[in-house]
Amino acid sequence: MSKNIRTSAVDHLFEAILSLKNSEECYTFFEDICTVNELLSLSQRFEVARMLRNHKTYLEIAEKTGASTATISRVNRSLNYGKDGYDMVFSRIAEIKDTEDEIE
């Protein structure tokens, strides 16, 4: 049974995140709201997901990121059976990069 994360408190958090305008604002906000370890854990999971999508092996990922095989497996499960949030973001990042390449 999954926990319901759709609460007004989570809504308020997401509204705050969506109000951020650039990387510097993200650093300022996330350094206040997260511990260093929480932020590093989130970024590690995102890097693991990116590497899995680029067909890297668990060993390569563990060596590069320091993630445990349990973390890699959890991220892989989200990629394969989750709600496609990672893929949505990867697709948008690729679109932004393509647009920037066209402008140059």
From TrEMBL:
One of its GO terms (molecular function) is DNA-binding transcription factor activity. It comes from the Bacteria. It holds the Pfam family Trp_repressor. Transmembrane segments: none annotated. This is Uncharacterized protein. SUPFAM superfamilies: TrpR-like (SSF48295).
